[in-house]
């Protein structure tokens, strides 16, 4: 289980305070208005932001003393964060060998992972030769091949059209079940995960406002309004 208890972060113009539990193996969708703290929550779990108080643990072990590289976490960013001069296979291989000194077994794993995300035959293509959806598939493959049990996705498909967004969310859910990992995905379009996510977390104003099933969150008029709210200027 991922357990977050009273983790507080402060800036001159923003304060965040999170308490949340996510059962291992779950597909958890994080929703809420822009600027409400969704990305900050994921960055804190990944180790890019450090809370000044509170506890953050996975499988009973505190993550707070660990650097991002030491945490059992892989993250997929909105802009995919691929290296433009590397081919798809090399970008994926960074998830297991940052030096890119690959064994034959490593190469086979990379090929299998690209096939798993629907990119068989794309091994030698560079990011500039692929569509936005294909680039995000490469980023997803890199996260999964790392073998880390907690996968974070920060609005990874927001630039895609609705049909492609939904197909990518379905792919994430399929691979989550196959690889037996925990997925926490922030998303601006909660309808895309309504039928797949097992837990939905509403984050607004720098904190967790509500957590429950997608139907419970989305069918509550006040919570649905909070999700759609625009940030104050």
From TrEMBL:
<keyword id="KW-1003">Cell membrane</keyword>
<dbReference type="Pfam" id="PF00005">
    <property type="entry name" value="ABC_tran"/>
</dbReference>
<dbReference type="InterPro" id="IPR003439">
    <property type="entry name" value="ABC_transporter-like_ATP-bd"/>
</dbReference>
<dbReference type="InterPro" id="IPR003593">
    <property type="entry name" value="AAA+_ATPase"/>
</dbReference>
<keyword id="KW-0997">Cell inner membrane</keyword>
<dbReference type="InterPro" id="IPR050093">
    <property type="entry name" value="ABC_SmlMolc_Importer"/>
</dbReference>
<dbReference type="GO" id="GO:0016887">
    <property type="term" value="F:ATP hydrolysis activity"/>
</dbReference>
<protein>
    <submittedName>
        <fullName>ATP-binding cassette domain-containing protein</fullName>
    </submittedName>
</protein>
<keyword id="KW-1278">Translocase</keyword>
<keyword id="KW-0813">Transport</keyword>
<keyword id="KW-0472">Membrane</keyword>
<comment type="similarity">
    <text>Belongs to the ABC transporter superfamily.</text>
</comment>
<dbReference type="GO" id="GO:0005524">
    <property type="term" value="F:ATP binding"/>
</dbReference>
<keyword id="KW-0067">ATP-binding</keyword>
<keyword id="KW-0547">Nucleotide-binding</keyword>
<dbReference type="InterPro" id="IPR017871">
    <property type="entry name" value="ABC_transporter-like_CS"/>
</dbReference>
<feature type="domain" description="ABC transporter">
    <location>
        <begin position="2"/>
        <end position="230"/>
    </location>
</feature>
<dbReference type="InterPro" id="IPR027417">
    <property type="entry name" value="P-loop_NTPase"/>
</dbReference>
